[in-house]
Structure formats: C-alpha cells, structure tokens
Amino acid sequence: MTLTDTYKTIQKASEPVLFKDKNSKFFGYAFPVTTEEAVKDNLDYLKKKHHTAGHWCYAYQLGTDPKQFQFRANDDGEPNNSAGMPIYGQIQSFQLTNILIVVVRYFGGVKLGVGGLINAYKTTSQMAIEASKTVTRTIKKQYLVTCDYKNLNKVMRIIKENNLKITDQTLALDCQIIFSVRLKNSESVAAKFKTIYEVSIKALN
C-alpha cells in the first residue's frame, strides 16, 4: 500500500465573495487554519466585521491524516443541515483540509426555503474556495539523531545521501541533529541510522 503523504489546503485567506438570492446577501470567506483556536479567532473577526448580519454559518476540517480529521459544520440558527453541511460538502468536494469556510448571511426579507438555503450556502462556499489559491503540501516527519563525534561523519553521510533537511543541531558532549523527511520515506531512512552502532534515533512527531 502506498502511503499518502500530501494534502491539499489553501495558501492564504481568500478575498470575500458575494452571492445574492431574493435580496438575501451571502458573503463567503475561506481561511487556512490548523487549530480550533484559529477557527474561533476568524469567527470572532467576522462577527465584528459583519455585526449586523443574521447568521455566521461555517464548516472546517483540520488535520493531515484522513483517519484523524477533525471537522465541524454549524448552521448557526438556519434550518438543520441547510448551511453547515452544504459548506462542509464543498470542503470534501475540493478534497481540502486545514481550512475554515464561513458564510455570512444578511436576510433580505424573503424566505428561501431549505432548498434555496442549501444552494446558497453551497454556491457561496464553492465561490470562496475558487477565489483561493489551492496548494499541495507534503507531510514531513521529524527525527532526533544522537551520536558521538566518531560517528558524526557516518550520520552526515546518510543525511547528505538522502537529501534530508537539518532543522536543528547541537554539537556539545555528544552530537544531536534534528532532521525532517517526507513521511513516505521516513521508515526506510530511520532504518539506515539504526544500522550504525552507538547511534540512536527517535521520532519527534
């Protein structure tokens, strides 16, 4: 089985988009997020920016492992599953993660019905994603290698041969090197260090 070590997200927050239906206005926003705290901060920002709006409906998905995705869809007072789930459906349709989509609604005086709401929230979300730059990122794994000076050359040779990126190193009584490697190559690279006597390697994430 091939290990998937990439994921799709958006590079930066989108410019707001606007969808109108029967005098109701739907403003769509997409934000790159990696924590629930960032989700809350962006929602707070939009509630201040659009303080006279009626609804701030949203959906988000966090994480890079499909088996451990965190997600939530919120209708914020709209009929059940008429807002949050259509927004989340677009996140799934575009196969994105680490993303928050918020649709802010100003009621225009004419009820749209559940079908109209689903279409409005889905369309606005799609527009917000399409207004964003989508990027594919690689999942990296970090390791700490500890060795004495006599084995440093062997360690550095493996790092060079495998084009590993050193993110930190400490050369004191012994040598400690932190490096990152693509997830799909991580086990084979770690195994190479384990063949050197007196060298220890530990995964950091």
From TrEMBL:
Residues 22-129 form the Impact N-terminal domain. Belongs to the IMPACT family. This is IMPACT family protein.
